[in-house]
Amino acid sequence: MELLCSVCEKSYNTSWLRRRNQDFHTQGEHGVEKGENGIRGTLCLVISETLRMGNTINAAWRKALKDVDIKGYVIPKGWGILTSFSSIHLDEESYENPYIFDPWRWKRKEGNPINFTPFGGGHRLCPGGDFSRLEVAIFLHHLVTRYREARPDLRLQS
User: Is residue 78 part of a domain?
Assistant: First the structure.
């Protein structure tokens, strides 16, 4: 649900939607191509960018199983560690203009893939990650293929 809300939140910027709609009409009726993860093209870029900005997982607690040295700072065994995914996904060193919704950053291969963890990682990776991407892809596919931009004639009464 949070992912869907994030998609709706980004909907005020419809440039990606217009571009996707054009792509769909040039590709024909089957605009969502199959790929490595079952979705490809502009929808995949939009979903990845929404996941990066939406931060479905804001943070995760972990426990250090052994002493860890990170750039000269030692985290002792047994200490709790809070990983902030929001900080990682919105880091200016990893992403140019991180607060701007730019799906095409993923085509430019911007950022380090290890810094993109919308569904956690390791043995605690969310098992529903691919399913949620598919659900959002289907929703966006139907939204885009039926989307018509129209300005209503509004007349304010004085």
Answer: no
